[in-house]
Amino acid sequence: NIRLTYFNYRGRAEVIRYVLAVGGVQYEDIRVDLEGKPTRDPVTVPQGSERRLPFNQFPTLEIDGEVFCQTKSICRYLATLFDLHGETAKDRLYSEMVVECVDDLVNDVIKMRRTKNKEQRLFGELINTTAPRAISSFDNFIKNKPHDGPYLLGKRITWADMYFAAFLVNVGGYMETFMGGGFGIEKYPRIVNLITAVENQPAIADWIQRRPVT
Ligand SMILES: N[C@@H](CCC(=O)N[C@@H](CS)C(=O)NCC(=O)O)C(=O)O
User: Residues in domain GST N-terminal (predicted)?
Assistant: First the structure.
């Protein structure tokens, strides 16, 4: 009995939706509204839901009535259930390193967004330095990966691949919408190939095709 709760957009929950799709389990994809707010940001936790939020934030995953939060913790738990960590401890280290680097970038974008574009210097730094440096590091990392195959660990998809694909696409889109500039990943075929491999994984492709348009 699983319920995922988040706002009505992809955001942080989409990677969890990918992992749940690959795991092939039925779940309730609950989307709480933003009380008619036309913009996706800033986020305000809807009134009344606080009681269900262990740390006042979404997404949450409810399992048989128990509520959990923290996207990566939820992903790791599901990856353990569905065998999506890779085989060895080093596989896990290798792929989760990428997750943390993605997270660093995501947090830089969010920090920037919270300044509401008032700080032009920070914005310029993100667009011209921080983001391009991170994207080029990802490209280099994929170029040098020791495992042959479409995914970070070769032929087997892990939750780290899903984290990479979901966040790079969604946060890149978010940046384009709110900051007028994305990650420019289209200039990096290796990154595009990894994202495409994730999006073509049959269960994820099926989810992408039937998910609500947000
Ligand atoms: N580290 C947490 C961050 C969660 C988080 O920041 N959630 C935002 C939405 S994306 C939220 O619920 N914010 C509530 C608020 O700002 O009122 C995670 O990865 O799940």
Answer: 1-86
